[in-house]
């Protein structure tokens, strides 16, 4: 199935092998790239090394509490869909208070879970491009094309799938080409909050964004690091 989620990574943290494989199968069928583990400790290490775009987390893990995984993901601005047998109202409220974007109690419909994942990924920040109602904005003689109304990015005429955070970061940079944005400014533009460790979090998402833009030197200027200050884009908007 061809979807707009190719290249988007979901981390599944579930200790029941059958459930883990079922969730993986349904997510991959929808086009997602899936990393899966039954270990909360391993999940936290993966998140620290290279944050996923979203995590599906079971709270009843054998090695560490799932709440700890949720806290790490929240600090790294990775949205979490909790999947848990703890389905009573108080537990669901507790999970949401810890920072979960959604809560799916077991037993569950795997198709519904995928829809919940898609829904969370679709909650992006509003485009900071001033004329965001434009159907299409091009840069670098058409090599980079942004379609804000459809939330689409074309690079060299090829579609690039971005998470809501990556999308908002790119649009923040493109809103004023050449202007240097500090990490705290980007955190404010993307999520309207400041927290300890946010500089490292922004760096992680910028790293993922660069990876998705590819290794072609022709595109290296789209996201540029200004040492000691922050980031800017060297893309030039077409007239």
Describe the structure.
With 239 residues, this protein is an alpha/beta fold. The protein folds into two domains: 9-121, Rossmann fold; 137-232, Arc Repressor Mutant, subunit A (Orthogonal Bundle), CATH 1.10.10.10. It has helices at residues 17-29, 40-49, 66-75, 89-97, 110-121, 164-175, 183-191, 198-213; strands spanning 9-13, 33-37, 54-57, 80-84, 102-105, 137-139, 144-147, 152-155, 158-159, 224-226, 230-232. The chain has a five-stranded parallel β-sheet with strand order 2-1-3-4-5, sandwiched between helices. A four-stranded antiparallel β-sheet has the order 6-7-8-9, with no helix packed on it. The protein has a two-stranded antiparallel sheet with strand order 10-11. Strand 10 (224-226) and strand 11 (230-232) form a beta hairpin. The termini are far apart.
Task: Give the structure's gist in a few sentences.
This protein is α/β, with parallel strands linked by helices and 239 residues long. The chain has eight helices and eleven strands. The protein has a five-stranded parallel beta sheet, with helices on both faces. Strands 6-7-8-9 form a four-stranded antiparallel beta sheet, with no helix packed on it. Strands 10-11 form a two-stranded antiparallel sheet.
